[in-house]
Model the fold of this input.
Amino acid sequence: MIDPRFLRDNPEAVERAVRLKRESADVERILALDQRRRELVAGADERKARRKTESRRIAGIRKAGGDAAEAMEAVRQLGEEIRRLDAERAALEAELEQELLRLPNLPADDVPEGEGAADNREERRHGEARRFDFAPRNHQELGEALGILDLKAAARTSGSGFFFLLGAGARLERALIDFMIDLHVREHGYLEVQSPFLVRPDSCTGTGQLPKLADDMYRIDRDDLYLIPTAEVSLTNLYRERLLAAADLPVKLVGQSHCFRREAGSHGKETTGLQRVHQFQKVELVQLVRPEASAAALESLTRDAEAVLQRLELHYRVVTLCAGDLGFASAKTYDLEVWAPGLGRYLEVSSCSNFLDFQARRAGIRFRGEDRAVRFVHTLNGSGLALPRLMIALLETFQCADGTIDVPRALRPCLGGMERIG
RNA sequence: GGUGGGAUGGCAGAGCGGUCGAUUGCAUCGGACUUGAAAUCCGAAGGGGGUUCGCCUCCCUCCUGGGUUCGAAUCCCAGUCCCACCGCCA
Done:
């Protein structure tokens, strides 16, 4: 959420952000609502002050045995006025809140302007795309031939966009999760967390999925819960409505979860195999930091995610998302895109974002500094990494001419020493 | 699903119609003492809003929302959540 006071002082900056992010919001109207709200508050406050002093005076009169009937009647009427003003204010505030929740975060200054993926800025590349002396197959062909992936059975069981992993396929995914969590815990200093997959609507509002992305999430209507689209939701909300001590920061969490996405409106495109599915596992990194530390934290969190790809000897690139491609809640995002030679394209395996105080304000995550002042923390998160697309890159990159798969060295210990699949 | 108990400042925990925004303890911060620290002593300090150059003042806030009352942390109603026990169950 945008600080209402910032909005009041910098409406043009917010309007620009809305435009750059291709959102729609009526800033004028929000300002008018806010103005009216403050008028109502002032009116009610003045009457409440009078009621208080009058009530005390009445207490004095009665204690002295006097007749306070007239004053009591006056205060009663004051009470009616207050009730009316407060009711109007409450309705207005609810409306204002809804509007504020629909305002996107402002893109950071160093985020390029632009419409979509084509305008993203490539920051760096790591490694090189592997060259083949045979025609590389895609992961679906490889996986089905090896009997470790079954999409048809999943379609019968659950519908399109689901998959079965079998044997070494399932084992590989489990090993990768272990590998990644261990790396982040032992070498990057994260605390391992296992978090809920079902969350309340408020938690989704906290991280910014609601209200805008309601259609992209699965909802359990009967219990008013949402299936998380990412562990970001539950991990970040671990500290919702809490006041932390300065010494508690930074908080660095790593958690594995299943992620559930309806993928409404993304039918048809780039859906071969495991590229875009309704349910998948992901290892997620979340950090809560002091405001002044968030820019550096985004860099280090991104490096933490990159370390996974480097150890697995995969070719990837890092891009900075342009404003038009940036998520609703994010101020700045780096995408990690891994090379999938069978598909012949880069796949987004991680999105590392700095939300500044946008999520913290919505979720009520604050800290008390050494100066005793209370401020909102800054939140960040990034995939570290998403499993299906990581598996795609591994299978396609390390395939052999005979359709078997070499296991990268770093992963072998997690697979009981297995060197080859197939 | 059933029954009972509870929700108060960072935490613990009093208060149960009238200077209560709230006693107290722990934690925190400042000071004294000390070579330094601990201990001890003294002092400060909840959060939000409005207004203001800023402060003071002001308003709200004792789970949430209604109600009773001149006046509610305190009384009434509804809801939410938490805990315990029972039942069911991975």
Observations:
- Chain A has two domains: 4-100, 117-421.
- The mean pLDDT of chain A is 91.
- The first helix of chain A runs from residue 4 to 9.
- Residues 148 and 166 of chain A are 4 Å apart (CA to CA).
